[in-house]
Write a structure and sequence with these properties.
With about 350 residues, the protein is an alpha/beta fold. The protein is built from twelve helices and 13 strands. The chain has a six-stranded mixed sheet with strand order 5-6-7-3-8-9, with helices on both faces.
Length: about 350
């Protein structure tokens, strides 16, 4: 079995802060005596990522997402814990590390404000030691995929947000890294620009096998791009598993909708149909089965309905729980838990995957 590309074990990052006292008197007192406190941004986070994975890393504002990514990039030193990226310790082997990774931070730019976008890309290529002919080839490739050619001669300061983010992605990949960290790369973009960037990321991951960690508040983005999800809340990892496993956490909200050729009366009873863990709701010519965790599998319920209604059953639809609602449930469960560690998270993920497979 191959070694994981990224290995994080019990990572902790503390920040030392102090409360400013109000007013001029408070400012004078702060000059001589400050009351410090420690804020734990990342709290014993552990995970592993294989080569070629595209992983969604999600959480509320201040949960610890960007701090984790900055440690993986070598920008920040952790307080404790271990972390290796492709065999390198990011903050110890920083020069070698940054040569082999790409990073996009949605609210910070790596482009030069007054230079034309194309000049910025060529300069970044030279910084990474990429030959000029290779830089031209890659810019031509990015033009075909991202459609950046029409504004390469435009100063960065005059680019729209969508144009600028496309150039940021090109800049992060100009040296062909095998790992890319994306911190809210589509923040503030319109629907069209977001879709263009999603298609680009999907293509780079599929065709080049580039490993990606993506943080975003747009959960639709996670659904479209990532098969695996990490959820962090208040510095703690509270979920590590597949999207299917994440949905399995809210399996009690799954509904099966059966459309019939006739209407059902208000007195209709599910005689002959499975009832354990299922709430049946007749609504005219539609019958809704709400499945709980103790219910039979979807396949079993659908098979029973087909046998029961026969030709009168015209259509079947499955209404999955919305990922936003599931994530909110996990946040709530995290807030109610006081002793959730990595072993507990791993167990939670295994149970979720098992539930998803059974469904």
């Amino acid at each position: 079995m191959s070694e994981p590309l990224i290995r994080v074990s019990k990572l902790v990052k503390d920040f030392k802060t102090y409360d400013r006292r109000p007013g001029l008197t408070g400012a004078m007192l702060d000059l001589f005596h400050r009351e410090y406190k420690t804020l734990r941004a990342v709290n014993e986070v552990s995970f592993q990522i294989e080569r070629g994975e595209m992983v969604g890393y999600i959480g509320a504002n201040g949960a610890g997402k960007s701090t984790t990514l900055k440690i993986l990039c070598g920008i920040l030193f952790p307080t404790s814990g271990e972390c290796t990226v492709d065999g390198r310790v990011p903050w110890k082997n920083r020069e070698a590390h940054v040569q082999r990774i790409g990073a996009v931070f949605g609210q910070r730019s790596q482009l030069w404000w007054d230079l034309a976008a194309g000049e910025s890309l060529r300069l970044i290529g030279r910084i990474y030691g990429v030959p000029d002919d290779k830089v031209r080839e890659r810019i031509d490739e990015f033009d075909r995929i991202l459609d950046i050619g029409e504004f390469l001669k435009t100063p960065v300061r005059k680019l729209s947000l969508g144009q600028k983010m496309r150039c940021e992605l090109a800049a992060s990949l100009i040296h062909e890294p095998q790992i890319v960290f994306l911190d809210e790369p589509t923040i503030g973009l319109d629907v069209v620009a977001k879709q263009a960037i999603r298609e680009f990321l999907r293509r780079i991951n599929r065709e080049r096998g580039v490993t990606m960690i993506l943080t975003t508040h747009d959960l639709r983005e996670i659904e479209e791009l990532c098969k695996r999800v990490l959820i962090i809340d208040k510095g703690k990892l509270v979920f590590d598993g597949t999207l299917e496993g994440l949905r399995a956490e809210a399996v009690d909200t799954v509904e099966l909708h059966f459309r019939l050729s006739h209407t059902l009366s208000a007195e209709w009873k599910p005689d002959g149909l499975p009832v354990r863990g299922i709430e049946w709701k007749p609504a005219g010519a539609e019958l809704v089965a709400r499945l709980s965790r103790t219910a039979p599998t979807r396949a079993e319920v659908i098979r029973a309905a087909l046998e029961h209604f026969g030709a009168a059953l015209l259509d079947i639809a499955i209404e999955e729980p919305q990922i936003e609602a599931i994530v909110q449930r996990i946040y709530k469960a995290s807030a109610e838990s006081t002793s959730l560690n990595f072993d507990g998270v791993a167990k939670l993920a295994r149970e979720a995957r098992t539930n998803a497979e059974n469904r």
